[in-house]
Amino acid sequence: MHILPDRPDALLTREAVAGALTAAGYPVSPRTLATKATRGGGPPYSLFSARALYRWEDALSWARSCTSAPRRSTSEVDARHAA
What we know:
- By secondary structure, the protein is α+β, with helices and mostly antiparallel strands.
- Strand 2 and strand 3 form a beta hairpin.
- Helix content is about 35%, strand content about 15%.
- It has helices at about 15-25, 30-40, 55-65, and strands at about 10-15, 45-50, 50-55.
- This is DNA-binding protein.
């Protein structure tokens, strides 16, 4: 069981942020975060030595930004993807 950080500025390793996001309802793996760090599209991070460190607030904001608005049916179109 992963514990959610109590401070928005808490610095978390890739493994810890993946666990915390999953516990918060945003299932993501450390491997996915690593891929996004290489290809782009993931949460911002800093390097400490060779380790990626994520601020909890940034990681949670990123996860929320990847989430669609609430829907009432599968036929509703996400406004971000509408033409």
